[in-house]
Amino acid sequence: MSASRISGQALRVIGCGLKINLDIRPNPKLSLERQTAVAAEHGMIDGRLLRPCRLSLSFYLMSEYNFDVEPGILKPEKQQIVLQNRDEVTQARVLSRQMSIEALTRALQAN
Known about the structure:
Radius of gyration: 16 Å
Shape: elongated
Number of strands: 4
Number of helices: 3
Order of helices and strands: EEHEHEH
Distance between the termini: 27 Å
Structural class: alpha+beta
């Protein structure tokens, strides 16, 4: 897997950590009226909230908001917001883990 597979500018190095934008939207299975209310509650613009996040924190946020649950498992009322770029975030986490392992391996081999 390579960094080029991560689309656009979503993944970038900031200091010592990686950041990614979480693309949060109302669950499309909610009624249009409820989607509008959810978007307003979360301060979304055009039904979308881009939330920059440290990649290391994404695990906790995905768990907290049930973004780690496969789409369609929970009732829309239980999962009122969804992570539009779930696959991208998951892929970035895998890539980050792989890069960390490789860096540790190089460091151990240098000693």
